Structures are given as structure tokens and as C-alpha cells.
Amino acid sequence: MRSTLTARRIAGVVCTIALLAGVAGVVAPAAPAVSPVAEAFEPTLSYYKCPPKSLPTGVQCAKLTVPLDWQNPSDGRTTTIDVRVKRSKEGKGGLTFNPGGPGGSGVDAFPSVYSLLPDDVVSKFDFVGWDPRGVGGSGLKLAGPAQPFVGLGLVPGATGGAEISEAKPGSPAAKAGLVKGDIITKVSDRVISDAADLVAEVRESVPGDSVVVEFLRGGASREVTVIVGSVDSGCQYGTVAPAYPPATGPVDWQVYWQQAADQIAAINTACLAANPDSAPYLGTWQVIRDLDALRAALGYSTWNYWGMSYGTRIGHAYARTFPNRLRAVVMDGSLPSAETTYGLATSFPSNSWVSLQLFPALAAPAAARKMTVIEEYLNGKVVAFPDGTELTRWDWAEQFRTLLGSQSQYPTAVAFVNNLYAGITAATPAERAKGLEVAAMISESQRVLLEEEALEMAAVFVFVNCSDLHDRVTPSELAAASESIERNYGTPRPYSMGLNAACFGLPPGDLSPAIPSGSSMITLKTPPVFVLSSGDTATPWVWGRNLANTFVGSSTITYESTQHVDYLFTPSDCVNEAVTDYLITLKLPPRHRQCTYSPGGPIALR
């Protein structure tokens, strides 16, 4: 439901190299002030028959027609927003939400979120779900011409050929027999001296081409023919890419981030060029105007709004732009108030370290030492699982952090630690195989989930973030930040900076206006409630505290957990009852409420 994309996703799977958290950067000149909308646009809401078996029973489906560009609403170009509405008994207004991302679908999340809402809430308010532009059933899809595809991951920085880090199962490369560890030295008549040479050669080919690939395996020269495949434009973020920094040993962060910058820029540039009528109009500046148009079309004077993760950016921008159109606001797992890619990147890795310290204290005291042993082991070795797959330090950091984002996954996280530790410290081959077999199953399930999420959400994720945040970074700045973070928090931590380093090749002037920001305080008729996790794996506690400080009279609820998004996604009565009471009565909880950890996950009520 909330995005957990990380470095590999936008760089290796998502783009052609690395992705998930933060950055360092040369700040672009301030964008010119956006002129106010000159002419009114009358949004239209058209209801249609919902798909079979849509839940909950009685839900209504609709399309909202809005301008393609709210800066020029009368130019005749429009798009549509997909909407779900479950009417309430009392009809006291509308409660809407955004499940995060950017790229999360409110329509897909609608049934499960509705099932968690207390009866007092669903009987009082209509519940409204919607897909932001570019997501799910809404308009502005990112697509483009077919691009050549062979399905290889490459070891960054390798010289004397392009060493394969992965041949994606079912890809043209895998079908031709190429495997991890092969070193490609020549493609057709082109000598391959490093990964960049191979990437360039693939990009110059045409889907359907037959290319002869010469490579070394075990020191022996071999040759195969690869039939170049195709994927949709770079907007699919899944072509040839070095998936990770080196699996073991020291990392030259300058080399890694330079490769990332070059390849991400190429993909982003291609995607933008292929989508001139959609990519420039995906930013949150546009989204909040869609949200207000939806409010007007449904006939609500104000919204009750629940923002989760990225949804808090929407809530903040909406409150700063339309402060009189909010009755109640719940900000859950917040981003900071004056976001920059540099600030997000450099503050996020330390939070990963905080999460790792809190998890054992809450759920598995014996795991603390084992986690340290695992990280030390993976810095020097790659774990070979019995099923033929492998686990590197980057896999471990990404997969384990994702598990900690949902406390319902704590038992799986404990099993991952215990079995991986047992496998790498086993005294006999049989004991090693037993531990690693379980660890392999957990690792593979996490790998699949992350890959699917990346392919589904990555393009929107990139273009919304890069539209919203107009500062840009250089590889040298990323490298300098990485070296400092590595010294303080361990080698795997800088890898998570890739998420917001994904804007290479996207000039701010070609995108949607930046989100509204500034140091002025926001005053709402009823102040918002912020729900924060002390060890949140995706949005650090301090980010939420920072955003709360910009709202006059806001209250915070701090929950002791690594959970990302707490209200109704944990069984904590301390959190849930206070937020529910606020939504119904507008009664604010104490300014700084503290809630202790409650084991378990969400409990569906219907």
C-alpha cells in the first residue's frame, strides 16, 4: 500500500540502475511563481457500472473529468480521475485518503481500508477513494515506443569486459544461456571494455536483431546468439542495468552514482520525450486541484482527509492551498514540510539504522547480535542459497527493512534473522542447508513483491517526485554523502539514497510546478492530528515532527514501533481510539500523546 521502492528499483529494476530514499544536491533556481488559474473549469462526475464483485457492497464507481493542466484549464485538454464512493447512513460529508507512493492506488486500496474503518466513522461519512492522475484507472499513462531489451544486470565499475550480475529469468539473455559471472567481451563487431560499452550497444540495436555475443566463463571463451527483445519505453524502467554496487568489499561511491546518473538520465529523457501529453502534468500541484474538484463535484463543503506516507505531501499542499476546505486532517507517516531531494536522502539512512535498533527491543531481543553478525558476514561474502539464488548485503538491507515496515511481518522478520544466522554460523553442511532453505523462501517472497511494486509504480513515482521537488543533485554530492553515511551507519545504508536521486535528466522547467512550500504557519479551523512511529522504516519520526510544527495547534501521537502508517494498521487502542474520536468529534488528543507498542496487525471489522 505504501511505497517501499529502494535503490535497486530505480536504478537497477526501475530505471536502469538504483532507487529509494534521499539525495544531495545543487539546488535549481527558484521556479517562477505559477500564475493563478484564470478561468473556472466545471468538473464533471460521471457514474458508471462497477466491475463485477466490487467491494464493499453498494460502492459507486465514477470518472471525474478535470483539465489536463490546471495552469491552462480552458485549453480544451482534459483527463479523468477514477473514483469510488461508499455512501454513509448519516451523510455528514466525505472522508477521503491517499495510500502513499507516489503511485499507490486509492481504488485498489479502497476495499481493505474501508474494512478497517470503525462503524461510527462509516455511518457518519461517505468514504471516497480515487486514483491520482497516472495511477490505476485514472488518465495520463506513461508509455512509449518499444525499446531493445536483453535482460541483463551488470557489475558496476568492472573493466576488461562487462560482467553479468544477473540474467533475468525468461529474458533473451537467459534464453541464450548467459548466466551470472559471465564476462561479455564482444557483441557483434564491437569490443566491450566495460558495462557502459554493453549498455550503449544494446541501445543501438533494434528489437528482433540477432547479435553474436562473445564472453568468458571460467576463463574459457564462448559464443552465443541473443535475439534482442523489447519492452515499452524507458517508462517501464527495466532494461540493462547494474543492479547493485559491488556485492562485497569496499564501494567506490563516485563510480556507482556516476553510472546511475548516466543511465537514469537516459531513461528519464526517453520517457519524458515519449510522453509530452502526460509526463509534464503528474505533479502534486496538479493532484491537489483534482482533489478539490472532486470535493466540489460530490457536493462537500469540506473534506475529512487521511494522508498516508506520500499522502501527507498531498495533505500538506492541499492545506496550504485550500485551508478553508478541510474539516479534519490525519497525517500518518509524514514527509517533512520543506522537502528537498538532498534533505530526504541524507536524513533517511540514519532512520534505517534507528529501525534496526528498535525492532529487537520490541519483538526479538536475541536478534540484535544476530543482525550485527549477518551484516558483518555479508560485507565479506555472498550467501548462496540451496535453491541456486543468492543474498547480498544489498538484498538483505532492502528486504529486511521492508519487513520491518509492517509489524504484522515481525514473525517473518524474526524467522529471517534466525534462519539466516543459523545458516551462516552452522557447524555442519546439513545445519547450514536447513537454515538457509527457510531464509531463501523468505528472501524470494520479498524479492518478488519488491520487483512487482517497482515495475508497477516506478514511472509515476519518479515523475511525481521530480515534479514536486525541483532541486537536483550531482554524482559527486551523492558520493560525498554516501561516504559519510557509510562511516556512521554501515556500508548498506547509502544504497537507500537512490530513491530521490532518480531525477537525473529531468529539468524542473519541463515538469509540473513544484509543491507549495515556505516557512509561514498554516492555520486550519480544526488543527490536524499527526500519527508518528518512533522507528518508522520509511518516513522518520523527525519528518512528521517537522511537518506538525508548520500547523498551528497540531497534536502528535507517537507510537513505539517500526510500523509505517499506524492508524488502524496496528491494534493500538491508544492510537486508534484517539484518531477515531478526533474524526467524529474534532476533539484533539493531548498535544504530545505517547503510545506503547501493541503486537499484531490490522483487524478488519467488515
From TrEMBL:
Gene3D superfamilies: 2.30.42.10, alpha/beta hydrolase. Belongs to the peptidase S33 family. It holds the Pfam family Abhydrolase_4. Residues 139-206 form the PDZ domain. CDD domains: cpPDZ_Deg_HtrA-like (cd06779). The lineage of its organism: unclassified sequences, metagenomes, ecological metagenomes. One of its GO terms (molecular function) is hydrolase activity. The keyword Signal applies. SMART domains: PDZ (SM00228). This is Unannotated protein. It comes from freshwater metagenome. Keywords: Hydrolase, Signal.
